[in-house]
Each structure stands twice: as structure tokens, then as C-alpha cells.
Amino acid sequence: MLDPYYLDRVRLPGQYLGRxxxxxxxxxxxxxxxxxxxxxxxxxxxxxxLGLAILYDVLNRRGDILAERVFAPGLDLENxxxxxxxxxxxxxxxxxxxxxxxxxxxxxxxxxxxxxLNMLDLGGIPLKASERDETHPLILGGGPCAAxxxxxxxxxxxxxxxxxxxxxxxxxxxxxxxxxxxxGREDLLKRLAAIRGVYVPRFFEPDYDESGEFLGVRPLLAxxxxxxxxxxxxxxxxxxxxxxxxxxxxxxxxxxxVEIARGCGRGCRFCQAGMLYRPIRERSPERVMELVENGLxxxxxxxxxxxxxxxxxxxxxxxxxxxxxxRLHPRRVSLSLPSLRVGSISGKLMEQIxxxxxxxxxxxxxxxxxxxxxxxxxxxxxxxxxQAASQAFSLxxxxxxxYFMIGLPTETWDDVKEIPELARRILRSGGKKGGRTVNVxxxxxxxxxxxxxxxxxxxxxxxxxxxxxxLRRTLxxxxxxxxxxxARMALVEGCLxxxGREAAEWVMRAYRLGCRFDGWTEQFRxxxxxxxxxxxxxxxxxxxxxxxxxxxxxPWDHIHLGVDRTFFESEYRKAVxxxxxxxxxxxxxxxxxxxxxxxxxxLAECAAPAETVPTESAxxxxxxxxxxxxxxxxxxRYLGHLDTAAAFKRAARRAGLPLKYSEGFHPQPGLSFxxxxxxxxxxxxxxxxxxxxxxxxxDLILERINLRLPEGFRLLxxxxxxxxxxxxxxxxxxxSGPSGWFDPGKVRDFHSSEAFPIxxxxxxxxxCVDIKPIVxxxxxxxxxxxxxxxxxxxxxxxxxxxxxxxxxxxxxVRRNLRMVxxxxx
Length: 825
Description:
- By secondary structure, the chain is α/β, with parallel strands linked by helices.
- The protein contains 25 helices and 29 strands.
- The protein is 30% helix and 19% strand.
- The strands form 8 sheets. Strands 20, 21, 22, 23, 24, 27, 28 and 29 form an 8-stranded mixed beta sheet that branches. A 6-stranded mixed beta sheet has the order 2-1-3-4-5-6, with helices on one face.
């Protein structure tokens, strides 16, 4: 856990606790290898990333390996770390990242590059690989950006291309052997270069002619001329987290995610992931159900997401959904399919999804005209899209989300103008009944490496902004809601995506100028990237955005994802001619990935659905209500009220208690709290109500929940409730701090005063309250001060407001005060 000095001062301190349910804490000195998995974004984003969860699980299954996590610190924490000269540390053990043997970064987007440099710098690790020696950790990268690792090659010792589950263990074994042999840095890099999928930039060098034109990448190590991606041939047997970490604070996708398939055969020409993760590999329905059951039992989530690049294409989807919902519906667990493709969505599928709660529908036609959809090989028809939206509206969905790209190859203004027209047709498909909305998202197309569009130009900023402004104006009408991604962010992303090693100086300069969290709109600063581009000497926007010559080498030609360059060239020519390519499951497109012997599609066999596990249904009788009291101590004080409620709800679900749920489209469990404790305050006595569908012994409820609550929470008592308890009339508190933190004279002055009006700010404006009749103080032990606060009137005072106004402690003192709620009055 991070030092309380920081936790008491940062926004969302719960993200830095590192004591979540199912996290792994090993003995630092009793392992052979220590790895910290770094995610160059905020905790709330990184904890949703499945790849991080898989690697954390795979590595920690080994008794001789310790794997921990570290995320990009918020700007407030970064500033404090720098001010105090303190290093960036891991979540689990609070050890400096520089002490680990390996620091591994997940490179999900080019806009996270400056965060990588910031995390290295905060960790006290030299940024460039050439500046590091045997005393420094091995800096390892992986993820989609490995499709073109050149812009970050200067900063990494090695980068893993492809699937990581098996390759990361091979890397770990080589590092362990190297440590035992006490070899040099060069020896370690050669060991790693021998592993399939591992790219060691040290052994490649870009060549340029006298005019500075790129001539290709030259290998420097014999027998190591290119890098073939690491591939998991069979997804069915590979390790997968059975008990994923349960975040203590709310994250972006707060649900259980189960990967049902990897790879996609659709062949959308803009889609890098569709090329990177070929061939298609599916898990069996039986294995998926097992992972869902295990994951729910370990987390208590109420939502399950079935993940793949195209979930609707999963071979056994109908049977899987029926089997899952038969199990999940009685437990009020909802199911979402985030990657549904128009044409794979049936009314039967929608009926299954809506059985618990509606989780939303997003369709991504990408282009509004059939001609442009043919160019990008998005083989969907408008009538299918309209029909799917009409079905969703008829089944009760109120909001449909669409997503389009602008600036696609061969795009014309007619293609752009058709976007609002198509959105209106989809809105009308819901009939004349009001209250329905079509949200239309759009963003600038980014040509990505290792796709048929890798040679295409990117739309210039002026043209992109003109089109986006047109869409904003024409979509701002009744029933339509525009939402757009930043064209400037897409411009930087596109330039980094197709850059060579020269882009490293641009990234370095942008970082030095203060670029952080560039994937967050509120943090992105385009003017700094412009300045960094000028300072670094890298070619300007127009050069980087230009179309590339298919006859000339590309900076990433030595990185092989299995797809032949000739296939990309063929698809590029077909795009220009508006010709489409079939799904490779229907007709092989000869992309080069499959040898149809050892490597090929591995599709699930759709056996008859197994008999569902009987689930006890709620009795027809009256619900049983329980009152409970609990304490919230130590690290739990850094969790807010909503996170506290989520912790209890999930503990009750994991305990197998028969929770009573509300009716309607979004059922909620019968769990409520009498009061909302402020963030940062501890409590010796909080209370709440639990509603069950049948009677359970109070002692059993207490025992089961206590076994599953996060650290810092403890149930004290559970009793069956006969009548509704009266609301609290006030609260008794104890406030402690450093020696002499309060002036006893101010306490005496307060007690002797006839009135003590204070002015406080509320959402509705400024309020003046006389606190003399409702506040009293009494001295406690040592430097603790007791306080009683009676609730009176419509305005409820916050204890910190009273302390600030009456005792007037300095800001530095207030930050070091500890407040404990003793009891309700």
C-alpha cells in the first residue's frame, strides 16, 4: 500500500491501495524472478485490460515467480513523488519498480507512449535502452503497438510480438538462467532473441540514403533477420484467470470479462487487430461456462461480458447464450456482448440478452454508403442494420449507438453527408413512439501498420475538422446525439503508428515538455506535440501523413504477424476497385497465417447444451430483512461510499446469500446503508439493511460475509429486523493529529459563545448556519479531540467543515488529521 502521506492527499486514493480481493502477495525474498506489469494509463483503465489479467495470473501460478502491478500515477501523485524524490512503486508490495528484474509494459495505444517514459523516469530507470546495464531491470513491451515497435525501440530492451501466455514464461526462464549464470546484458539479449516472438531492437538498425530516405532495417545478429509472432495454437487449454482481481474502486468496465475467441476472419481492411490475432481460435462452450461460473464465484460481479473481436461470429453462440442465461438469470446476472456485428444479431439473441437487464447496443457500420463499406470490406448491408435496430427498439431498448470513421480511403463528401441520413433512417425504424435516441459517434481514420491500408494517406487536420463540424451540426437534432473523438489526437496517433525510429526523439521531446495521459481529451495538449515535432527534427505532419509507395520498404517490414505482404497488397488493390473479400472461414483468402496442418482455425464444436445447474428460485413469501453493523478501519477509509456499497454487495453474492432484487429492467439488490461515510474517515460503527428472499441464520450471514470482505471492513452484528430503525440524530467523532494540533483556547471560546454562525458552500448556493446548538467538543486521550455533531435542519454539516471553522488549523495540519466516527446518536 502507498504511504498514507500520499493517500491522504491524492484524488481517488483507493486506486493505490493494492490490497484487492484475489490479488497476489508473495514473499519478495523467496522467488527467483520478480516482474512488475506496467500499464501506461490510469488504474481505472488498466484494470479492465484482459491481457494484463492473463499475464498476472500466468506468472503468479509459478511458485518461483512474483508478478505485481503498477499503473500510471495521476498527475497529483506524480508531482508529490517528484517533490519528495520518491520512486514509483508497485501496488502489491510497494517496492520501487527499479528493484524488479523485469518491468513489462502493455502498449495498447500510441497515445500511451509518454506515460511509459514517465513511469520509467519516476522509477529511476534510464529511459533509453543504450543507457542501461546489468544493474537495471529488463524493460519489456508487448501488445498491439508491437505491430510497429520502431517509434519506441530506443526505450525497450525487448518487445514481444503476438500472444503472451506461453512466450512470457519462456522469457522468464531465460532471465532466471541468465541471473544464475551472472552473464552480461548482451548475453541476456541474445538469449531473448532466440525466443519466437521476441524483438530485440539492439540487433536491428535502420538504413537511410544520403537524402535521408528510408532504405529498410538491417539485421545485426546472424540468423536473426526477422521476428515471427508468438502464437497460441489452441485457446482451449491455455491458462486463464479463474479468480480475477476484484478492484476496490470503480473501473471503466466494472464486470467479469471472459474471452470466448481470439482472432477474426472478416478481414476489415482498416482493422489491425483482425490481422494481428489471426487465425480464429475459439473456446468450447463448456470451458466458457466453467470460466463464467468460477469468475462469478470469485468476484460477485453482476455483469458478464463475452469478449472477442466479433462475438456474434462465435460458432456456438446461440447454445452458449441459452445455457448461460438459464444459469445467470435466476441470480440476476446480466450478459453483454460488446463486439456484435450487424448480420450476426438475431431477435433470439436479443431476447436472451434482455432477460436480466438491457446492457446496450452498439453498431459500427464504419461507413454510411455501401460503396465505402465495400472499400473497407465491411460486408454488412443497410437493410440488415436497420432491421437490427428496429428489433432492438421493439424489444424495449431506448438507445442505439452507431460508430463511423471519417477520412477513409476514397471517401467523398457524399459519403460523409450520408452519415446523418442513415442515422435518421435508423431512428425512424423504431416507429413514431418517442423517447428513443440514436447516439452517433465518429472519429478520424488512422491508417495502421500491418493492414491493407498501411500505405494510405491520413486525412489532413483541416479537412477532418471541416467534416467533423458538419456532422456535429447536422446530427444535433431531435433524437440524434453526436459524439466525436478528437481529430488532433487521431493525428498524433496516426503519425506515431507509422513512424520509424526517428519518432523516438519526438516522443522523448513531447514527454520532456509535459505530455501525459495523451489518450485523455482533458489532458491532451496538441500544441506541445507540435512544438516537440519542430524541436526533434522529425519530418512534419504532411510528410508523416502522406501515402506510402507499396514498392518501397516500411519501418516494420521485419516484424511478421503471419500475414504475407502480398496479401496486404492484393487487399489494397481490391479496396481501390471496391471489391470485397469473403470471411476466411467461408473461403480462404490465402493470407499466409494458416498452414492448414498445425496452424489454422480452431472452432468450437457445438454439442447439445448440457443440462443447466438447478438454481434455487425465490419463494413466494415475504422477503426477510436484516440489520447489520460494521466497522471501516485502516486502508478501507480510502474507499468512498459507492465503493463500500459495491464491496458489500459483491461479498454477499460471493457468500451465496439469496439476495432479494427489485423488479424492472435494472434490478438492484436489497442492500442499503443508513449513512454515507465521507472519504478518508474511519468508523467504529456503521449500519445498513440486507434483504433476502428467505431466512438465513444471522450468525451464518456474519461469518460468510466477513470471510469475503476486503481488508479494513468487518461485520460486527447481524440481527433480523422487525421494524424500520430510526434515522440517526447525529454522530460522535474523535479527531486526532500531531502534538498540539488544536488550541484548547479556541474550544473554550466556542463553548462560551452565545452563537457561532458559519458560512458554507453547497450546490444550491451559500448557506449560513449557527452551529453552536448542534456542535460540542470534549477532550479525549492525548492529542485527540472528541466532537458531537447533531443533525438539524435541511443542511447537514460535514465534520471537516466544523473543524476548519472552529479550530482554524493550518492546511498542513488538516492534511495530517485522522477522524474516526465512534457511533451514531
